[in-house]
Amino acid sequence: MTENSNPALVVRVTDGRPPKLSNESIPIPTPAANQVLVKISHAAQNPTDVQSFDGNLFGDGAVLGCDFVGEVMKLGSEVTRLAKGDIVAGLIWGGEVKGLGAYSHYCLANERISFKVPQSISRAHASTVPLAAATAFLALFSKDCLGLDRKQAKGTSVLVWGGSSNVGLYTIQLASFYGFNVVATCSPRNEDLVRSYGAKHVFDYRDEFVAEKIRTAVPDLKHTFDTVGNTTSSSIASRALCGEGGTLCTVRPGKTNTEDVVKGTHVTDVVVWTAFCKDISYGEFKWPASKEDYELASELFEKLPAWLENGTVKPSTPKVLRGLDAVSEGFQEHRDGKISAYKIVYEI
With a threshold of 0.70, does the pTM exceed it? Predict the structure, then answer.
């Protein structure tokens, strides 16, 4: 290693005042048996980073950031899939463990919840993949979410509400790959993009009759994934389901903002952290460890290199900002609602 310390962006909370981000040097973490130590070159921003900071979810001493790419520097004693020098993309729940997150120079990756980056994909592009792709895969196929059967895809429709979001674009690609009939909403300016990723029907989410138009086009719709999770998205998306009702999975933990869905709609939520096979607490909400979700996510990460190489999965478009000092700027861009069809990536 060229460094003996770990420069990081640390959340600091003092005297009950709003949290601040502080550039500090913290210890380099030590990998567990199934983990590798990664020297980070790129970290991608996710909405959960901003929400966790603004809500002070993890308190003083947290290091946020979930998606990262870098070089494997050290192996845990049981690691077999990766080797020193590999360039990998990893997923970490930044903030859950004090001092461990992607907004730093060193982080840890579970060898089964990470993947080797193909040479044909840039590090910046690869960093956009782990959290959004895993969220999409679990939302579609986990028994606790939509629970779609990949063997029965033909003739089955799924609505992706927020098709041009990062999670939405991965959901469209993965559902299309397995043969599902994909319906999506987005703004008119992103319609061509969403269709190019595999959506067969695309609707303007701001159209006051959007639910009725979706029902007319796809009268047998029984599955929808709300990748937006705002105060109205789940309610409107539920109205697009067929008269027999159906299942709506929301990206918001604890099924937040689903109080006004159509009566009879089965509501679930996707929490990507179930991929780590341990009990999860997020504020007041709790989820038990899921071996099934761990195996499902591991399957995805094992397949991602080939899918990225052959174009089955296209990574999100990165907007690269330089250094951890730019994180405050990136967070504000999210708050201002300016991010659409791209993902902010920090070059460390």
Answer: yes
